From TrEMBL:
Family annotation (Gene3D superfamilies): lambda repressor-like DNA-binding domains
Domain HTH cro/C1-type: start-end pairs: 17-71
SUPFAM superfamilies xref list: lambda repressor-like DNA-binding domains
Xref: InterPro entries: Cro/C1-type_HTH (IPR001387), DUF5753 (IPR043917), Lambda_DNA-bd_dom_sf (IPR010982)
MF (Gene Ontology): DNA binding
Name this protein carries in UniProt: Helix-turn-helix domain-containing protein
One Pfam family hit: HTH_31
Length: 282
């Protein structure tokens, strides 16, 4: 039965299958014929509206002459995954992008974030997150504010996986000094960043105000590594909210951007010392 609202992960699987088909020079009708199906079936698979079995993924890959076994295995994993993670509790409560981001982080092999406006989501305290969401206009009612805060706190799961899925955050000094609420919340937030930075697999780096060569003030983003590089994804803030980006050229551009931003940041140990000094100033 067709899905009413496929997730971003389901849509991504469909897009990747379409890319393989187009690279093979086949039409949707021709590909459907290889499965003994009608063209509408292929359209539904490639839009994420319909699921696809492991056998069909492998059959299509063979007909598309795809020899990248790691990519094929990763697509099979996406097709057969039946994970119902903690984010499912928020379906119908929060907008889909919140759920898609949590699912993206859950499946990521690593996560790199740049924070130039706020402390990155997984590193935020509850009070800090509440202050950020409460600042939205039009103002959110309590019934919508609290689920957003709860969801953000649940995203800390990404910090607890150790070396299995490393997490790196590059934070500008601006976000560490900005008081989104009051002095108490600001001090607790710095303490939380320091505490989380001590976890295995978690790296926090700071870009001081006086560093030379930083022109990336608008570079806030999240980069999630896929099982293979072709399945990497970027989450970016846009005027309408947030968007997931996975075009090869854009992924390469963002990887380059992250390297540039990281290169002007302090080393992890220096960053912790820097945050300690900022905390003492509060």
């Amino acid at each position: 039965m067709p899905r009413k609202q496929p997730t971003a992960r389901q849509e991504r699987l469909g897009r990747e299958l379409r890319k393989l088909r187009e690279a093979a020079g086949l039409t949707a009708r021709e590909a459907a014929g290889l499965l003994g199906a009608v063209s509408v079936t292929m359209s539904q698979i490639e839009s994420g509206v319909a699921g696809v079995s492991e056998a069909r993924v492998r059959r299509l890959a063979a007909h598309y002459a795809c020899t990248d076994s790691e990519l094929i295995d990763a697509l099979v994993e996406m097709a057969t995954d039946r994970t119902r993670g903690w984010w499912e509790a928020y379906r119908g409560v929060l907008p889909p992008p919140f759920l898609d981001l949590a699912e993206l982080e859950h499946h990521a092999t690593y996560v790199d974030e740049i924070g130039t406006a706020h402390v990155t989501g997984p590193l935020q305290t509850e009070d800090y997150a509440r202050a950020v969401f409460a600042y939205w206009r039009p103002e959110l009612p309590e019934s919508e504010l609290e689920p957003r805060v709860e969801h953000r706190m649940r995203r800390k799961e990404v910090l607890a996986r150790g070396g299995e899925a490393p997490y790196t955050a590059v934070l500008h000094e601006f976000v560490l000094r900005t008081r989104v609420a009051d002095r108490r919340v600001a001090r607790a937030q710095l303490d939380e960043v320091l505490r989380q930075s001590e976890r295995p697999g978690v790296t926090v780096r700071v870009i001081p105000f006086d560093v030379d060569g930083f022109a990336g003030a608008s570079a806030a983003l999240l980069y999630a590594g896929g099982r293979v590089p072709a399945l990497d994804t970027v989450q970016k803030d846009v005027p309408s909210g947030s968007a997931l980006v996975d075009a090869a050229a854009q992924l390469q551009s963002v990887r380059t951007l992250f390297r540039k931003v990281e290169s002007v940041s302090l080393e992890p140990a220096q960053s912790r010392d820097y945050i300690h000094r900022l905390a003492k100033e509060l």
